[in-house]
Amino acid sequence: MTMNSSEHYKKKKNFFATKKFMFGLGICLGAGIVIGAYKTSVYFSSDDSCMMCHVHPHVYDSWKLSKHVNNGSGTLVHCIDCHLPPQSETWAHYSAKMQLGLKDAWSYFTKDSADFHWDQISELEHAVGYIPNESCKDCHQNLFPEGITNDGITAHLYYDENEEKLDLQCISCHLDAGHYNPNYNHAKMTGIPGLQASATVDTSAFYKEATPITSFSDYTECIPGTAVSFNMKAIPGGTFQMGSSEKEDFHKDDESPVRNVTVKSFFMAELEVTWDQYWAFYGNTMSEGRTPPEEVYANNSDPNVDAISGPTPPFGFPDQGWGGGNRPAITMTHYAAETFCQWLSKKTGKKYRLPTEAEWEYAARGGTETPYFFSGDPADFSDQGFWRKFFAAKTDSISSYVIYAKNSQNKTQDPEVVKPNPFGLKNMLGNVMEYCADKYDPEAYKKSGDNVSDPLVTEGTEWVVRGGNYTSDAADVRCAARSCTQHDAWLKTDPQQPKSIWWYSDIKGIGFRVVCEYENQ
User: Fold this and answer.
1) For strand 238-242 and strand 259-263, is the pairing parallel, antiparallel, or unpaired?
2) pLDDT digit string (tens) for 114-161?
3) In this predicted structure, what is the pLDDT of residue 368?
4) Separation between Cα atoms, residue 104 and residue 110, nearest integer Å
5) Which residue has the higher pLDDT, 419 or 493?
6) Which distant-in-sequence residues (6+ apart) come within 8 Å of 267 by Cβ?
7) Euclidean distance between CA atoms 145 and 16, whole angstroms
8) Domain termination residue (choose one: 126, 157, 172)
9) Which of these, 499, 506, 447, 458, lies nearest to 168 by C-alpha position?
10) Which of 146, 172, 198 is the last residue of a domain?
């Protein structure tokens, strides 16, 4: 039986009606999904939703105290404004949001927040991965707003001209913009941390005389005119094998060939120069830009200690808020370390200086010939290598002697937490890198011959630094491991012209230790 035209028409009409219904339903469902996704995105973009997973005990309070809440414009800056790319960059914004959201949710449900080192997470090295520079520039499009200081203009001009070349980021100078940190300040320091300008100084406790050296034995040096003293260890001279063989794990070319090196007896400080010592020097010699004395490298040619021009004020707190006292003084330049030695020599009447590289390694080994002055294999302690993906590095014995990446919590530590080496010296390995008196030459060992006495390299552009620091892997705190300064890179974010000769802006784990020459030999 054939279908008549009326039935055909009705069937066709029902077909199109169904199509329209399905199309409309699809539009409604699609719109619902889009609206739902948008509403979900908006909800999970609020500050309250961020706090659901971020259980940092001070994140909310520090945000409320920051310039992103308390500012002259009345603008309130929210979590996603800083921690995600700008919304104008749609794909980057939402992909980052999804990636970080999943990571944060996973951490919330699978990890214990009590195990997090919150101070470490707040450091610049960690923050750069969570604050896109594009977001800073999206809000701060005018880098020279009304009321900006002359120092601010200088700094922002430097940033504007060098952003791409030096890979500069806003938070390099404004780390506390989003979360207030009382220990952070990117302005010139005034006074000495911990010492009020108006405080009355009790000079009755100051030392009147330096400690005389009457024999080759340990002594405690007293700095006249200050209340500061420190221990010096007598290091008997001798011959040792300097460098490392190719068989030593993580050996590098600049550590060979191994050669016999003889050093005279000398005294070496038990600890790296502390903040107590360095602030005494700073307070005695600080300058406001006077021409620095060229005789700083001229072996105490000026008899007048008051003529020594010391450091200008640094930007911010050079101790990074980690603490002063016996912690190692950090961020000063090699020039500043040399000037400290000159000042200390004039104050005490002795010959203090930086150790030669040979003296440093001889003292670090403490009479041993192994990779460290304690027992252990660098391959067992290091995080380098394929098997570290499956088996954790050993930390038991090395952590007793060395402050390094595995136990430092990304900052320097008090020297009392480690044991000394056989010569009684602490932190020869780890905590902070230490300046030497030598210029760096990767071929120095090859050029010197097999048997040398008291070598000193004077040609080169960078200085030798030894010992590794609190961020170092175990491979880089071996007694033979060598490194050098990176002068330009360590001054990358310093906006001053000319750049500071006293303080580095982009290295924290650098310090120094002094030696005193023994005259009667």
Assistant:
1) antiparallel
2) 777 777 777 888 888 889 999 999 999 999 888 888 888 888 988 888
3) 97
4) 10
5) 419
6) 213, 219, 232, 233, 234, 235, 515, 516, 517, 518
7) 62
8) 172
9) 506
10) 172
**Among all chains, which residue has been given the structure tokens 């108006």?**
198
Question: What secondary structure letter does DSSP report for 210?
Answer: P
Residue 329 within a domain: yes
| Residue 294 pLDDT > 60 | no
Share of the chain above pLDDT 70, in %: 91
Residue 96's pLDDT band (cuts 50, 70, 90): confident
Look up residue 104 and give its two tokens: 């944060």
User: Is 398 in contact with 418 (CB distance < 8 Å)?
Assistant: no
Q: Identity (one letter) of the amino acid at 520? A: N
Q: Which string of DSSP letters, residue by residue, matches 250-282?
A: T--GGG-S-EEEEE--EEEESSSPBHHHHHHHH
pLDDT higher for 75 or 382? 382
DSSP letter for 500, please. P
Alpha carbon distance 447, 459 (integer Å): 12
Q: Does some domain include residue 183?
A: no
Which tokens is 93 given? 């914004």
Please indicate, yes or no, if residue 198 is contained in any of the structural domains. no
Q: Is residue 223 a contact partner of residue 346, using CB atoms and an 8 Å limit? A: no
462 and 361 within one domain: yes
Say how far apart CA 483 and CA 488 lie, in whole Å. Answer: 15
Which residues, in sequence order, are bridge partners of residue 422? Answer: none
Are residues 98 and 215 located together in one domain of the fold? no
Instruction: Among 42-46, 187-191, 345-349, name the most confident range.
Output: 345-349
pLDDT tens, position by position, 326-347:
999 999 999 999 999 999 999 9
User: Across the chain, what does the average pLDDT equal?
Assistant: 88
Q: For residue 288, how far is the Cα from the chain centroid? A: 26
User: In the predicted model, is pLDDT for residue 252 greater than 60?
Assistant: yes
Instruction: Evaluate whether residue 162 is within a structural domain.
Output: yes
For residues 46 and 39, what is the distance between their CA atoms, to the nearest angstrom?
A: 11
253 and 218: one domain? yes
For the chain, the domain total comes to 3
The one-character DSSP state at 191 is S
For residues 323 and 276, is the Cβ–Cβ distance under 8 A? no
Task: Give the pair of three-digit tokens for residue 272.
Answer: 């790296």
Are residues 13 and 135 both part of a single domain? no
Rounded Cα–Cα distance for residues 455 and 448 (Å): 8
Within 13 Å, how many C-alpha atoms sit on residue 406's CB side? 21
Res 374: pLDDT: 97
| 15 shares a domain with 55 | no
DSSP string, 338-407: HHHHHHHHHHHTS-EEPPPHHHHHHHHHTT--SSSSSS--HHHH-S-SGGGGTSPPP-TTGGGT-B-TTT
Give the SS3 label for residue 205. Answer: helix
Sorting pLDDT into bands at 50, 70 and 90, what band is 300? very low
